[in-house]
Amino acid sequence: MTAIPLPSPIIAQAVKLFAERGYAETNLPSIAKAAKVAVGTIYRHFKSKKDILNTAFTDIMNFFHDSLATAANCQPDDPETTFSRLFDAATASMEQYPTELHFIQQNVFNEALNAESRAARGRVIILINNMLLEGQERGVIVKADVRTQLAILYGSIVSMIDIVWAQQQLEGHVSNQKPLAADLKNQVWNGLTSERRVFN
Q1: Residue pLDDT, tens place only, 70-123
Q2: Which of 19, 41, 109, 169 is the most interior residue, by most CB within 10 Å?
C-alpha cells in the first residue's frame, strides 16, 4: 500500500496531534512547534485550524475511499468476496495507518467539517451501503435497514482502529493483527448473513 499523499509536514503533524489530543485541544502554536515552522508560516498555507482539519480529513478519506473502491471492484463480484476484500483492505489500512484512521474516526462527525469533507465521508458510506444492499438483493445478506448493518460493520471497525492505535501508542509499533481481524471478519459476516430473531 502506498503512502497517504498528505500535502505538507504541517498537515502530517496536525493529524498526529489531533489524534493524540483531539481537535478541540490542539492549537496552531502546538502544530507549528511539531512541524518546526513559525505560526506565520501556517497562515501562509492555511486560513485556520479548521482549514487544516478539513484538508487532512478530505485527503485521508479520499485515499481510503480509493483503496476500498479498488478492492471492491475486482472480480468475482459476489457479496461474500466483495465483503472479504473490503474488510481486508480496511484491516491493511489499520495496520499501516493507525494514526490517520484514529484521526478520521475521532472527527467523522465533527461539526467543523466543511462540504468537501462531508462529501468525502459520504462517498465511503455509499460504497459500503452499496455492498450491503447488493448482498441483500442477492439474498446473501439478511434483509434489514441498511443503517443497522452499517452500524454493525462500522462499529466493529472503529473498535479495532482504537485497539490498533492504542497498541501503537503504548508499544511503539503495531503487531500482526491478522488473527484478530479474521475473527472479527467472521463474526461480522455471520451477523450480517445469519438471521435468528430473539427480540421483537
Answers
A1: 998 887 888 999 999 999 998 888 888 888 999 999 999 999 999 999 999 999
A2: 19
Read off the pTM. 0.88
Contact 130, 67 (CB under 8 A): no
Q: Which residues contact 101 (CB under 8 A, 6 or more apart)?
A: 64, 93, 94, 161, 164, 165
**Radius of gyration of the chain from Cα atoms?**
18
Residues 6+ apart with CB under 8 A from 163: 180
Per-residue pLDDT reduced to its tens digit, 135-157:
999 999 999 999 999 999 888 88
**Residues whose CB is less than 8 angstroms from the CB of residue 183 and which lie 6 or more positions away in sequence, other chains included:** none
pLDDT value at residue 3? 61
Residue partners of 155: CB distance under 8 A and separation at least 6: none
Set of cell numbers at residue 174: 503495531
